């Protein structure tokens, strides 16, 4: 479980990294717009795991985007340092990962839609006039 400080730093890093990718360094990613799904920070705030995704992309472009981000790691960290220098003393080391949860969800949706599940047959009552089980008495009533 993350501490409040870790949560605040991860939220700050997620917001500022999104701004870095969209405004400061869009020229590094021509035709690719990396989206930040989440950021997890280590307890000592020294390492940040950044999860990237690209929702509207062709197949295989996610790995291409991850390679571009890793190649430009130094520029991204410098741009991030300029943005958060007033909030944090040390800029955490950024480790990028590809988040493929959207693709996984789409694949599972496709698999589930292809399943042929027959409708359940209504159960026939073998004893139509059977009495319902009696409920136990919880309190004794003298009037009965």
UniProtKB/TrEMBL annotation:
Subunit structure: Monomer. Binds 30S ribosomal subunits, but not 50S ribosomal subunits or 70S ribosomes.
Top-level division of the source organism's lineage: Bacteria
Protein location: Cytoplasm
Region (Disordered) location: 116-144
Biased composition (Basic and acidic residues): 131-144
Keywords, in A-Z order: Cytoplasm, Ribosome biogenesis
Alphabetical list of Pfam families matching this protein: RBFA
PANTHER family documented for this protein: RIBOSOME-BINDING FACTOR A, CHLOROPLASTIC-RELATED (PTHR33515:SF1)
Family: Belongs to the RbfA family.
Lineage: Bacteria, Pseudomonadati, Bacteroidota, Cytophagia, Cytophagales
Entry-linked InterPro entries: KH_dom-like_a/b (IPR015946), RbfA (IPR000238), RbfA_dom_sf (IPR023799)
Species for this entry: Hymenobacter volaticus
Function field: One of several proteins that assist in the late maturation steps of the functional core of the 30S ribosomal subunit. Associates with free 30S ribosomal subunits (but not with 30S subunits that are part of 70S ribosomes or polysomes). Required for efficient processing of 16S rRNA. May interact with the 5'-terminal helix region of 16S rRNA.
UniProt-recorded name of the protein: Ribosome-binding factor A
